[in-house]
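Deliverable D2.4 — example input (structure tokens):
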């Protein structure tokens, strides 16, 4: 039985006794939401047609027609069959993984994956194989062994970020898909840090590389480049239906307020048209990295997430404190967010940073690095 057959069989089993769920907008007098004090009915002058807040899960009374518009727009943006909005990127990752991966399955996860991926896989209770960060030979070793002992009901998965949030580097997605097809594995990609910033329309690295039709699902957050609350999963219509019926993180979570949906519609249109911001972002990242190299500092990763590995926790904190005192909000990232002995400064470059600011902060980072006598700078 294929993975999609597994999903369809379960949905059919729900349909027969009348247990299949569907998203429907509110109708009639409200006796289903959790709007106990009636505040959700208050009409806001700026959004009179979207007056109800998210006072129930989407399966009770929290689903508004505007969310259908948002999800249709997101699906078109990615060239996917469907999209499903959830309350946050953490919830989307954890909910997706714990729903589509079963206890009898096998899953490979990059060592540098986000905590939400780690926690989602823990909930799934599948056999986990953590491969060394971006090391394809190690991933293939795991896939080969898993494929050799693969049972009839056992599915193989690979889960990775596209642009890694703490390392600042990019997964070798094309190579991952080659391995996935060789060993008949499904690929799930977390595009949190790439959404809005890569591709002609900003839809992410998977789409930029032409891999949409080969990916099982992608996860995108609104809380980074898009600057709106919430997140979504992009994939097939069957996947969406399966999540609506099986994903506890959607079923038992209060829906986002419909006013937020209006922000999403505005943002999706804006980001697709804003190629100039993407050009400025990548140009700024190159300029900042060049300035660090000129100051004899070697940054990690690539693109606009710039880790400066220090190693010692206390020295990383001291460096961040001094930079903050100079007016630069740069934070120290320490274990367990990153591996032991890899405490670092994480510098996030933006499209609206000016050349003057970038030059000044590069000089400040170099000076602070010298002050704290960090060998890794």
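Example output (designed residues):
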């Amino acid at each position: 039985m294929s993975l999609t057959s597994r999903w369809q069989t379960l949905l059919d089993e729900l349909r027969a006794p009348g247990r299949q769920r569907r998203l429907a907008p509110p109708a009639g007098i409200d006796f289903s939401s959790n709007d106990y004090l009636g505040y959700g009915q208050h009409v806001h002058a700026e959004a009179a047609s979207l007056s109800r807040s998210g006072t129930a899960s989407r399966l009770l009374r929290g689903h508004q027609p505007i969310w259908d518009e948002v999800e249709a727009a997101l699906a078109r943006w990615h060239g996917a069959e469907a999209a499903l909005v959830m309350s946050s990127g953490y919830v989307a990752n954890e909910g997706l993984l714990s729903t589509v991966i079963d206890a009898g399955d096998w899953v490979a996860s990059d060592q540098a994956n986000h905590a939400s991926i780690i926690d989602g896989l823990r909930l799934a209770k599948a056999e986990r194989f953590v491969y060394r960060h971006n090391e394809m030979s190690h991933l293939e070793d795991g896939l080969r062994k898993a494929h050799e002992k693969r049972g009839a009901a056992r599915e193989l998965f690979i889960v990775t970020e596209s642009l890694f949030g703490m390392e600042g580097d990019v997964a070798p997605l094309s190579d991952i898909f080659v391995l996935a097809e060789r060993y008949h594995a499904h690929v799930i990609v977390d595009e949190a840090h790439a959404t809005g910033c890569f591709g002609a329309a900003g839809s992410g690295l998977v789409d930029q590389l032409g891999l949409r039709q080969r990916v099982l699902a992608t996860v995108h957050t609104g809380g980074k480049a898009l600057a709106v609350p919430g997140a979504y999963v992009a994939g097939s219509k069957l996947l969406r239906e399966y999540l609506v019926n099986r994903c506890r993180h959607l079923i038992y979570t209060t829906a986002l307020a419909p006013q937020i949906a209006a922000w999403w519609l505005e943002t999706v249109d804006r980001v697709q048209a804003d190629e100039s911001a993407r050009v400025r972002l990548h140009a700024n990242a190159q300029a900042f990295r060049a300035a660090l190299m000129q100051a004899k500092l070697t940054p990690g990763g690539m693109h606009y997430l710039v880790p400066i590995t220090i190693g010692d926790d206390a020295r990383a904190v001291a460096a961040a404190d001094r930079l903050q005192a100079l007016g630069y909000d740069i934070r120290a990232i320490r274990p367990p967010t990153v591996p032991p002995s890899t405490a670092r400064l994480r510098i996030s470059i933006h499209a609206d940073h000016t050349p003057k600011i970038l030059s000044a902060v590069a000089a400040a980072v170099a000076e602070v690095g010298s002050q704290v006598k960090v060998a890794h700078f």
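Residues 25 and 63 are 5 Å apart (CA to CA).
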